[in-house]
Design brief:
Extracellular Endonuclease, Chain A; 24 strands; alpha+beta; 8 helices; 419 residues; single chain; six-stranded antiparallel sheet
Length: 419
Amino acid sequence: MFSKNQLPGLTKLNIRLRNNVFYILIVCYAFVQNASSSSSCRIKWGSSLPVWYPLVFNNAGIIYPHRTGNNSDWSLLIEHNGDFNISCTTAGDFHGYNVSDLKVHCHGATHKTIVNKKPVDFSKLGCKKHLQEKLVAVGKCYNQSTSVDILFQAKYKRLPLINICHNENLDDTIFAHHFIEGSALNKFEVSNKRPTFKEGIFYTKITANNAYKQTSQLKQVESLVCSESLAKKYIDKKRSFYFARGHLAPDGDFVHVYEQNATYFYINVSPQWQSINNGNWKALEFAVRTYAKDRNAKLEVWTGGKNVLKLEDVNGNPVEIYLSKEHKGKLVLPVPEILWKVVHDLARNASVAVFMINNPHLTEVPSSLTHCSCVCPQISWVTWDIKNIIKGYTYCCEIDSVKKLLPFLPEIKSGQLLT
């Protein structure tokens, strides 16, 4: 057996190793403790919700629910220190509190919500009334049009929902921009009630609601094509040939009922033939949502109309169709010739532009209305009849091929096709 004097280096090495192991154990323990304390706090969500659901948010924005198990198990995941905010905006105060905004803490170990240092059942934190959105002009956009946010105003924070580029001179919306939170779309907050469309601070020289009435459409088209009988062929309710209020950012793309209700502004619609709005356009909206839900994807979406629809007058001459005119005779609220939607999957960096011809009266689609080599056959979720003119003739484009056609879009890096 060797003595200490014989192997002094080995003994010192053993001591150093033991010290290092002890240090590593301390570091690992501290890491685990820190990870545990900063892990998500989970609030059960879904079957028992506040009657009037509040804004739930932190510095990053609205906190949406997510599936945490099977499809019936939903939770709000509160990250980091467990602090978040809730607000009733301008809808009044919370039940049991005389304030419109509250700070809430979610205790990580117990998953309990705490207000003013007292445990509170989250389902009891409801507002006295439903939330009210605001329409706020925030600057300028394409061609000196007005950039407008449909948003929710908490006490100290604005939470935008939809951004709209609106031409006030023509009462024409160029595009609407919004996001779809695919992982948060759920069965618990689906409203079957359709709110009345609102003009907000726009349409000051006409009444948008009157312009969309079928009797007004018939009278307006008659004045443009100079023939009552021809106008009745164009505007034919039995064939769904009339102009509907076609959502740009549709209510079904949003999670909460208060968000869905906030989509009902006239600046968030475009005149679409009803046969198309309830046909292939509806199929497109549903397909995009299904893509987002099935893949738990967050999608960035732009939607709008392009050019002005032309119909032949009594002499066979093409005339542009507008739904209204100002008292001085100026034509406003144009009907788009082409409808379009650009969809970008942020995680995959995949995108596509989908176009639809807004004219069911065509017998064939002229080449002047198609602006790219169609890639619809490569897209698995485009399952409707893309050649059906009455329901909406459809073609799909790669983003790079439509940048000149849609110059107001931000730069979208060329990734893969959204298949």
